[in-house]
Amino acid sequence: MKFRAIMGALCAAGLMCGVSAVQAAESIEVLHWWTSGGESKAVGVLKDDMTKEGYTWKDFAVAGGAGAAAMTALKTQVISGNAPSAAQIKGPLIQEWAAQGVLVPIDASAGDWKKNLPPEIDKIMHADGHYVAAPFSVHRVNWLYINKAALDKAGGKAPTTWPEFFALADKMKAAGIQPIAMGGQPWQDLTLWEDVVLSQGSDFYKKALVDLDQKTLTSDKMLNVFDTVRKIQGYFDAGRTGRDWNLATAMVINGKAGMQFMGDWAKGEFANAGKKSGVDYVCAAVPGTEKSYTFNVDSFVFFQQKGQKSATPGQLALAKTIMSPAFQEQFSLYKGSIPVRLGVSMDKFDDCAKKSYADEQVAIKSGGYVPSLAHGMAQPDAAAGAISDVVTKFMNSQEDSKTAVAALAKAAKTK
Ligand code: GAL
């Protein structure tokens, strides 16, 4: 045991929390947005691991799904010279922050990462040839969660096409069940919309949301996407304005609603409520997306502390712990995701996670593995934000699909 760990353990045991122990423990301030039941449990594993290693965890949690509020808080912190030790940042935003010259490389902790990460994800963790981010797990975004009792009552099976979906939603309605639980924030609107884009095929998704190809963005298929979203909205309940995603998940958990479109962090809520897949709920790929996989990889980046251009021992230990096999397993078991590190055993995982893993392998081989736009993996912040505005405006007004498509094509040009 290292000196720091010994002092930390003594302190935790209430034995010797004197000045020397306090001075020995580096304090690590961590900014994240994992505040729902399942999310807190998952990040709690990291806190416990770091505390055991002798560091002091300073939690800087900013509530708000998908992190919009957390990102605003982070900018304020960095501008005022109070950057946290680490912050939850992912996708192209990693490079955007690196370009500001405020991050530290963590190569010293990443000796075995290259051979243990899928190449497309390994690349995202880099800036200027150095590792600057540590990845947690892979979330699949294109899921539909269904309350099992509601499904049985409607006499249905998980839908694989939109006509099947609408037929099931109608049956739930006829059986007195609210068909869809939906939250009311722009990122949740965008999550559903990108699901429907994906249902038109992963090639269409890539051309539209990765390449931002104007012809694809203005195609009849895209009109169809907006029409389908409008139709799905007909099955929402009235109270969605401002509703958090986990409250919508709770409606499905408690049988107040039949279905929710959400990434598999929702599974963390089911697990936290003691619910079992296949018994209490069913996870299915969004209709029409069985062979595709929108990935969302959470990661932490590490900020310069007191003007130092290299990582502190605590930052290096944090990065190392995040990628350790034991942490990868336990974090994902609570979070609803699957480990991003290759070769971690899936034995302890449930059917939904095993399906996620199997579907991921298929999608990678077939070209159906695509980055989620709604979760910051596909585009720089500015373009993603402009597209999000278009989708949210459409979903919160009576705008027609043609007007939305024209606005979308314009938004995609945002630099
Ligand atoms: C996503 C994030 C997930 C989950 C979700 C809801 O963007 O990647 O880890 O936390 O937001 O907050």
Distance between the termini: 51 Å
The kinds of small molecule bound in this structure are: beta-D-galactopyranose
Strand composition percent:
5-15%
| Largest beta-sheet characterization | 7 strands, mixed
Number of domains: 2
Structural category is: alpha/beta
For CATH, the homologous superfamily of the largest domain is named as: Periplasmic binding protein-like II
Total strand segments: 13
The whole-angstrom Rg is 22 Å
Kindly provide the name of the CATH class of the largest domain: Alpha Beta
CATH topology annotation of the largest domain:
D-Maltodextrin-Binding Protein, domain 2
Stretches where pLDDT is under 50 for at least 5 consecutive residues are: 1-8, 10-22
Molecular shape: globular
- Helical fraction equals 40-55%
Which CATH architecture of the largest domain?
3-Layer(aba) Sandwich
Integer average pLDDT? 94
Signal peptide: 1-24
Family: Belongs to the bacterial solute-binding protein 1 family.
Protein name: Probable sugar-binding periplasmic protein
InterPro entries: Bact_solute-bd_prot1, SBP
